[in-house]
Design a protein that fits this description.
Helix content is 10%, strand content 38%. It has a single domain, classed as Beta-grasp domain (Ubiquitin-like (UB roll)), CATH 3.10.20.30. The longest helix has 7 residues. The chain contains one helix and five strands; from the N terminus they run ββαβββ. A five-stranded mixed beta sheet has the order 2-1-5-3-4, with no helix packed on it.
Amino acid sequence: MKIEVKIQRPEKTLKVDVPKNSIVKDLLKKISINSTTIIVTRNREVLDEDTKLNDKDKLELLSVISGG
């Protein structure tokens, strides 16, 4: 399956091949991104690590910002 991943920081877009029945966690591992540093969205809906991916999904990875 081909997944398009738009990364907020640094701003770039990746096209990633993943096996069928992959979940968000599999994708993040493949592109070496720590799940605690980002929020994954699809169609402006937040996804958790166990959400199944679909062929031709367009995901956006938003940086988690914290401060005090």
